[in-house]
Amino acid sequence: MPDKMSAVGEIDTIYHRLDTFQPDTAPTEYGYRIFIDAHDTPGSDHFVRWKFTGTYVIETKPQYTLCPLGCVYCPAVCSGFAYVNGILREGYAYNPKTQKVEYVIGLKCSCCRCWVTKFEDHPHVSDNQFVANGKYKNVDMGFVPINFYTFFEKYRVEVMQMSLSRFAFDYWRAIQAQKESSNSLFQPISGNIHTNIFDVNGKNEVLGIFYASAVTKKQIYIKKDDDMADIKTPVDCLGREGAMGKDCRLAFPFSSITPPSDWQ
Fold first, then answer.
1. Is there a contact between 54 and 144 (Cβ–Cβ < 8 Å)?
2. I need a labelling partner for 7 at 20 to 30 A (CA). Which of 71, 131, 169, 260 fits?
3. Which range among 16-20, 25-29, 34-38 has the greatest average pLDDT?
4. What is the pTM of this model?
């Protein structure tokens, strides 16, 4: 079925507040709760979806990958490091043709620095309790954990605001309700969410939705500050068994060695 693309308003501001979480069997976790203020177009029906995406940069040390024997390093080929006379040196790599470790001019690690994208775990749609005269205040977008990886340098928050038709709004609101209540005793009964895509022969069921949105977006960068000075750095021998000792593209899902075109 066709869908109408309505005009969309603007995101006025993105801001964050320090938040804490106390797991039952683990130390206190810290992070930032992300909020927005926004407005939509005059005379609209207030059918809006927001999409929250986080991006951060990280540097790993695949030259410190641990061998099965323990604290013995087995550097990855992409790290640009190799052992020369028992010493780990940068700029060397194993040449399979000559079967020797050779120095390569300008050789650098090709899998150490990655930009990681963190996607939202559920959609966010407008709610009448947040809107007054077409303005939305204190809309909760999500949580950014504070740890060594997310704030290795800085963290970018991006929020997209999308206009929706009534059908698309109901579709995404139903998904949001199911996602948010998945761990609740009062979880709504799951079932087929209505779609506007159908088989012309009427024989097959379809999942998904066709919709069209006008889009606007806003970004902020949260920088590493003095309050994060006590974050533990995972660089000891055992710590390198984790993400720090891997190709960053493998250690972090949805990562790339190429920065976003609009990264600042």
1. yes
2. 260
3. 34-38
4. 0.85
Number of CB atoms found within 10 A of residue 152's CB? 18
Q: Which of 127, 134, 142, 112 is nearest to 14 (CA)?
A: 142
- Residue 63: Cβ within 10 Å count: 22
pLDDT in tens, 153-190: 999 999 999 999 999 999 999 999 888 876 655 555 55
- Sign of the four-CA dihedral 29, 30, 31, 35: positive
Whether pLDDT at 258 is above 60: yes
- DSSP run (H or E) holding 213: none
Which strands make up the sheet holding 131-132, listed edge to edge?
10-21, 29-39, 135-145, 131-132
Sign of CA dihedral 244, 246, 248, 253: negative
Residues 35-94 have pLDDT tens digits of 999 998 887 888 999 999 999 999 988 887 777 776 777 888 889 988 888 888 899 988
Helix-strand-coil percent breakdown of the chain, rounded to 5?
15, 35, 50
- Cα 147 from Cα 115, distance rounded (Å): 16
Q: Are strands 135-145 and 131-132 parallel, antiparallel or unpaired?
A: antiparallel
Task: With beta carbons less than 8 A apart as the criterion, state whether 38 and 12 touch.
Answer: yes
Which residues pair with residue 161 across a beta bridge?
Answer: 50, 216
What six digits make up the tokens of 158?
């991006």
Classify residue 146 as exposed, middle or buried by CB count within 10 Å of its CB (0-12, 13-18, 19+).
buried
